[in-house]
Amino acid sequence: MKVVEKVRICLLLIVLLQGMGLAQAANINEVRLWRAPDHTRVVFDLSSPAQHKLMMLTKPDRLVIDISNSKMLANTAGVDLSKSPVTRIRTGVKDKEHLRVVIDLKQSIKPRSFLLKANGGKGDRLVVDLYDKQKVKKVVKHVAQANERRDVVIAIDAGHGGEDPGASGPNKLREKHVVMAIAREVKALFDKQKGYKPVLIRTGDYYVGLNQRRHIARKAQADLLVSIHADAFHDKRARGSSVYALSKRGASSATAKFLATEANNSDLVGGVSLNDKDDLLAGVLADLSMTASMDASLKVGSKVVGKMGRISHLHSKRVEQAAFAVLKSPDIPSILVETGFISNPGEARKLKTKAYQRKMARAIFDGVNHYFVNTPPPGTYLAWQRNNRQGNEKYVVARGDTLSGIALRHQVSVKALRKVNDLASSTIRVGQTILIPSS
Q1: What stretch of H or E contains 388?
Q2: Domain boundary assignment for the chain
Q3: 146: three-class secondary structure by DSSP
Q4: From first to last of its 439 residues, what are the pLDDT tens digits of the chain?
Q5: Would you give the DSSP letter of residue 187?
Q6: How far, rounded to the nearest angstrom, does the alpha carbon of residue 30 sit from its chain's CA centroid?
Q7: Distance between CA atoms of 235 and 226, rounded to whole angstroms?
Q8: Partner of 301 for a Cys bridge, out of 139, 201, 319, 371, CB 3.0 to 4.6 A?
Q9: pTM of the model as a whole
Q10: Phi and psi of 240, rounded to 5°?
């Protein structure tokens, strides 16, 4: 054999071997499904990156996913499909070496997919989102009455969720579960307090993008966004709860910068890049509404810090500032509450208990309530209540008192007493403080 031919064969073998390396088979080790209010997320855990294609078919509706040079090792029959549009996940082999996944559907959906590269201790993942077709809702115009007193809307954001577990603590304690429990406790407290309307940004264990969280708060016309977290630090000795507001400049501390970076990286799970938002954000931050929102954020944040200091060690006794993406709403005051470091064994033990979750929720509620009672937005029930209290005499109900008797004694009508105290009936109780109209 000639030398030239030997060289040619050797080069061909090298190319073939390289090609085999590039086309290394990927195993799908697990398939998981998460349901959100507007879409279903299907996640394929891969042993290595793999190319894929989507194809939507009708009659019946189904989504076909072709994954190059891959094998299905997961048991798709064990995936929980309840409350999702998916009826079955089938697999087969295409062209003897490629994997074909067929997702049978109850209804038509809009698919979106992306490959999530290995990060944060997790391997490569193929993420397929099945968005529900939006139904056209009839718009009903609401005409505000002159005497209407609206509720203060509080958007409560439990960080992370679904495919994004957040930080991890001892014994597989997950941030997403801890903060969801605290968020629900906060909502329950606001539900009981007249004058408030709490709205959960996520209502279950599913992923919501950082930009989408702000959108949900804006759609609800929120007066405040409270984002709840329990993050981790590389030093397990780090401890303490803290409150953060947005910073237009740099972070107020090294820890603030680290936590903001970690929190913002959550959007990688959604296949979203934040790198192209700087120019737009720079323009938004120039708006005076952002300055006003940041000022309100710092004020309400200081109230929450004060209340949290009564039940926990504070990592910082003042409101810290950093570029948290979830706080970048120009028109909504926003704070991020770090309930503690889940990476600290001592704080993790407290954070996983229902008793401490309720204490933390109460501290957040008390701080926010204290701010809005003293600085209520115009047109709200709290503003009306505050205006009526100014200049009015206070009277503590004693044993034997009746509303009609109090009205006669102070020469005012029962109707006026009921109106200024927002009483649904003439029933009063001993020890109750009621306001007596000045005229």
Answers
A1: helix 381-389
A2: 21-132, 152-374, 391-436
A3: coil
A4: 555 565 565 555 554 544 444 456 789 999 999 898 889 999 999 999 999 999 999 999 999 999 999 999 999 988 999 889 999 999 998 888 889 999 999 999 999 998 888 876 778 889 999 999 876 555 444 444 444 689 999 999 999 998 888 888 898 899 999 999 999 999 999 999 999 999 999 999 998 988 889 899 999 999 999 999 998 888 888 889 999 888 765 544 555 454 455 555 554 555 544 444 444 444 443 444 456 688 888 999 999 999 999 999 998 889 988 777 766 777 789 899 999 999 999 999 999 999 999 999 999 999 999 999 989 998 999 988 887 766 677 888 888 899 998 888 888 888 888 887 878 888 898 888 888 886 5
A5: H
A6: 26
A7: 26
A8: 319
A9: 0.71
A10: 110, 150
SS3 of 40, please? strand
CATH of domain 152-374: 3.40.630.40
Burial class (CB in 10 A: 0-12, 13-18, 19+), 329: buried
CA distances in angstroms from 41 to 120, 132, 162, 420, listed in the order given: 20, 11, 9, 51
Class assignment of domain 21-132? mainly beta
How is residue 92 written in tokens?
Answer: 């087969």
Structure tokens at 125: 């993942």
Rg (CA), the chain: 28
